[in-house]
Design brief:
Structural class: alpha+beta
CATH superfamily of the largest domain: ATP-grasp fold, B domain
Helix content: 25-40%
Distance between the termini: 20 Å
CATH topology of the largest domain: D-amino Acid Aminotransferase, Chain A, domain 1
Shape: globular
Number of domains: 2
CATH architecture of the largest domain: 2-Layer Sandwich
Number of helices: 9
Radius of gyration: 20 Å
Length: 312
């Protein structure tokens, strides 16, 4: 519940319609619209290569909404029948309801009514996104990982955001295997801590996490400083443009701020891909270093939103 006629001393830790960024289908929809608008304006940001791909704004995997885009998805699937796709419910988190598919028959089996030509979702309330799976992730120790980064937004118009430096990488507990026989093994494919901690190989001491600083040091040592700096510069670039893509839709209020949890996957070419944005990133800690990092996050966040010695 949001109070729109706020008194001056009140601050709220969410923007009223943050779902424009944090709901998976709306985020994709807004980024696609943002790119089209820039293209119509003739902006150099919307430049494409010879294959029709955006050069500067290609940072989300090819994605369709189901059931609305089912026919478009089928058309794309048949062009590349050996591609693996990942299905996600739009309104859920912590890896709930996610699965991988590489055959249309798997969708039909999952659908409530496989006898009709029209795709039917499992419930009338749930919509799904289906995205091309990043099947060439950068591996460390043979394991897949993603990056959880924190972004504080205090205003969308004008856009004012802060990227926190102390994020972390979350690792799978089982070595990556792209074999179709492993598509159902979520310990191979999903990095969510809520899933990985249920596995036999989960290490409660380090929680399957590296700090972003350690990740950067590793990449600088194995790939070089220049390409590592480029990777994180691209992450910052993508973050800013994802926020600009929704800035016109968000109900901006000077009493509101929000800390988002950005999830990125890095492929083996050191290209980052924005996977999703979380409105209420977990602030519970699974390790001592996790607790220290999140304590610092909250301390720094509050000092920005409410500077010391000042009223909100």
């Amino acid at each position: 519940m949001f109070i729109f006629d706020c008194q001056n001393f009140i601050v709220i830790n969410h923007f009223p319609n943050h779902v424009e960024l944090t709901r998976k289908d709306l985020m994709v929809k807004n980024i696609k619209r943002y790119r089209k608008d820039l293209e119509k304006e003739g902006s150099p940001l919307a430049e494409k290569d010879e294959n029709g791909r955006f050069i500067h704004l290609d940072f989300i995997p090819l994605t369709f909404m189901l059931p609305a885009d089912y026919n478009l998805f089928v058309e794309e699937f048949r062009k590349n029948p050996n591609t693996t796709w990942i299905m996600k419910p739009c309104g859920k988190a912590r890896g709930i309801g996610i699965f991988l598919v590489n055959k249309l028959s798997q969708l039909k089996k999952w659908s409530r009514d496989s006898k009709t030509n029209n795709f039917t979702p499992p419930t009338s309330k749930d919509t799904y996104v289906i995205s091309k799976y990043i099947d060439n992730p950068l591996l460390i120790g043979g394991k897949k990982f993603d990056l959880r980064l924190y972004v504080l937004v205090t205003s969308f118009r004008p856009l004012k955001c802060y990227m926190y430096r102390l994020g972390f990488a979350r690792f799978c507990t089982v070595k990556y295997n792209a074999s179709v026989n492993e598509l159902d093994n979520m310990f191979v494919h999903l990095t969510n801590v809520s899933i990985q901690k249920q596995g036999e190989d989960y290490n409660a001491v380090h929680g399957g996490k590296w700090t972003v600083q350690n990740m950067r040091l590793f990449l600088e040592g194995t790939r070089g400083k220049e390409v590592t700096d480029k990777l994180f510069d691209e992450i910052n670039w993508q973050t800013v443009h994802s926020l600009k893509a929704v800035s016109g839709n968000i109900s901006n209020d000077r009493h509101c701020f929000e800390c988002y949890g950005y999830d990125y996957i890095v492929d083996d070419n050191l290209k980052p891909w924005l996977i999703e944005v979380n409105a209420s990133p977990s602030l519970t800690s699974t390790t001592s270093s996790d607790r220290i990092m999140k304590y610092r996050l909250m301390n720094d966040l509050i000092n920005i939103v409410i500077p010391p010695g000042q009223m909100p």
